[in-house]
Specification:
Elements: H1 2-27, H2 44-47, E1 48-55, E2 58-65, E3 69-72, E4 77-81, E5 86-88, E6 92-93, E7 97-101, E8 106-112, E9 114-120, E10 125-132, E11 134-136, E12 145-152, E13 157-161
Length: about 170
């Protein structure tokens, strides 16, 4: 009975040593877990979330920006739909920070964590085109984004909508 027990102990000892060696191998720079992992990036709508509200005939857009992501200040754009196209609008925004950007090779103003835009409105039913662009600190820059917002000043409502089609008149 001693021989089967000692064989079992040798087998278990060998398995324990193999397990220990493989764990050590993976964690000391030789195994696959030590290879540099590519960063995983958030989808654009998760990296840059915004909430809208209307107060005193002014549209406010409050941004929540994910950690290690930022928005370019000069890429914020707002325009009103005129039935055929969009007219650029002047709006106000919170200040960002100025930082050297290696992509543009110049100092640019960027927003980390949060930003706020405000646009005075004077017509009840409007469609606003909201443009923005941002990057992740880890190196990914998202393409410019355009979102379309249907505004109802009377009801104080803002709804995200599809891009409107230009009115072409009767055919």
């Amino acid at each position: 009975m001693q021989a089967p027990l000692s064989a079992l102990i040798r087998t278990l000892s060998t398995l324990a040593l193999l397990l220990l060696a493989s764990t050590s191998f993976a964690s000391n720079g030789f195994g696959s877990s030590s290879l540099q992992q590519e960063p995983e990036f958030l989808p654009v709508d998760e990296a840059y979330q915004y909430f809208t509200r209307i107060e005193d005939s002014t549209l406010y857009i409050d941004w929540i920006i994910a950690d290690e992501y930022y928005l370019y200040h000069d890429k914020f754009k707002m325009a009103l739909y005129n039935g055929e196209g969009f007219d650029k609008q002047d709006f106000t925004s919170t200040d960002g920070i100025v930082q050297y950007d290696e992509i543009f090779e110049k100092d640019v103003e960027i927003h980390y964590q949060s930003a706020q835009l405000s646009l005075p409105l004077n017509s009840n039913n409007s469609i606003v085109r909201l443009g923005f662009q941002g990057c992740a600190d880890a190196g990914l820059c998202y393409p410019p984004q355009n979102h379309y917002l249907q505004i109802d000043l009377n009801q104080g409502l803002v709804d995200k909508v599809e891009k409107p089609q230009a009115n072409r008149g009767p055919e």
